[in-house]
């Protein structure tokens, strides 16, 4: 099979895309690298600083704690959204008008822009006029996201779960629809339990869409900005200031482009590593399965 | 190009990466890579090993620069060695 002469000319077809990506991503990223080693005042006045910004950023306690919070947040929402999304997908009707109706209902949160989601939840959680804030107060819990870090955290997690679980659910739903009926027939002949069907038919067939779902959700949540910014402004204190907000404060409010560039690169490397590990791990799991003949 | 505020070290850095990528492409055309298993826990192609090497080199540089008093040149030297080992036996 390896002796076949392969025709690789089709690769030229990705050239337009490559140009586009060069302009939208690669060249800006290269510029960021250039910024990260200099102290730039304007186009004419700049000084080479070498690795100084990197040393400063890596040892900055504010950024270190923002990074910790970021990981805690991303892992929390993944741990909730993935099982919940699979569960919702399993419960969704398979055909008829109910299927269309439920699909639309489930998709709705995905259509709302980030900062609008933030505003919705900001009003929703207000103690005086918000439905959730007011109800919790009436029930005797002194709910206040501007004063209690725990309340703020839980609210942001719930908000993200509300906004993005539908993505996992939709991906899983399409994955479930792609399983041929023959698998279920075979399972029925074997008198397989509902759990066995899920564990040995549905879950393995969902691996591909789950890889995409987990990757997307991880990267999205790792770069979350607008929702907590509108809802809590990163507070109380800095208890919900995530990485991109810490970065934005530095880059736009304080206008330290050099340190921000250095920090962006560290941020980029973290995302690159985690995404690669996720992808490789799950792709290998599949390969082992195929080789094992299972 | 002045808006990109180039410096000599970053220019050398990107030129090296570009040369590596071009070289890998040429190598792939001349003799296509076969996926194999070395000391890494996963089967890899040449491109995979290059990526792993570059990424680990980036992290090594960050650790050396950020948390140790050692020179960045030491990190670079170790990275080049690591890259060669990885490409040959990884």
UniProtKB/TrEMBL annotation, chain A:
<comment type="similarity">
    <text>Belongs to the binding-protein-dependent transport system permease family.</text>
</comment>
<feature type="transmembrane region" description="Helical">
    <location>
        <begin position="261"/>
        <end position="282"/>
    </location>
</feature>
<feature type="transmembrane region" description="Helical">
    <location>
        <begin position="197"/>
        <end position="219"/>
    </location>
</feature>
<keyword id="KW-0813">Transport</keyword>
<feature type="transmembrane region" description="Helical">
    <location>
        <begin position="152"/>
        <end position="176"/>
    </location>
</feature>
<keyword id="KW-0472">Membrane</keyword>
<keyword id="KW-0812">Transmembrane</keyword>
<feature type="transmembrane region" description="Helical">
    <location>
        <begin position="12"/>
        <end position="33"/>
    </location>
</feature>
<feature type="domain" description="ABC transmembrane type-1">
    <location>
        <begin position="67"/>
        <end position="278"/>
    </location>
</feature>
<keyword id="KW-1133">Transmembrane helix</keyword>
<dbReference type="InterPro" id="IPR035906">
    <property type="entry name" value="MetI-like_sf"/>
</dbReference>
<dbReference type="InterPro" id="IPR000515">
    <property type="entry name" value="MetI-like"/>
</dbReference>
<feature type="transmembrane region" description="Helical">
    <location>
        <begin position="71"/>
        <end position="91"/>
    </location>
</feature>
<protein>
    <submittedName>
        <fullName>ABC transporter permease</fullName>
    </submittedName>
</protein>
<feature type="transmembrane region" description="Helical">
    <location>
        <begin position="103"/>
        <end position="124"/>
    </location>
</feature>
<dbReference type="Pfam" id="PF00528">
    <property type="entry name" value="BPD_transp_1"/>
</dbReference>
<dbReference type="InterPro" id="IPR052730">
    <property type="entry name" value="Sugar_ABC_transporter"/>
</dbReference>
Automatic annotation (TrEMBL), chain B:
<dbReference type="InterPro" id="IPR018678">
    <property type="entry name" value="DUF2160_TM"/>
</dbReference>
<feature type="transmembrane region" description="Helical">
    <location>
        <begin position="6"/>
        <end position="30"/>
    </location>
</feature>
<protein>
    <submittedName>
        <fullName>Membrane protein</fullName>
    </submittedName>
</protein>
<feature type="transmembrane region" description="Helical">
    <location>
        <begin position="73"/>
        <end position="89"/>
    </location>
</feature>
<keyword id="KW-0472">Membrane</keyword>
<dbReference type="Pfam" id="PF09928">
    <property type="entry name" value="DUF2160"/>
</dbReference>
<keyword id="KW-1133">Transmembrane helix</keyword>
<keyword id="KW-0812">Transmembrane</keyword>
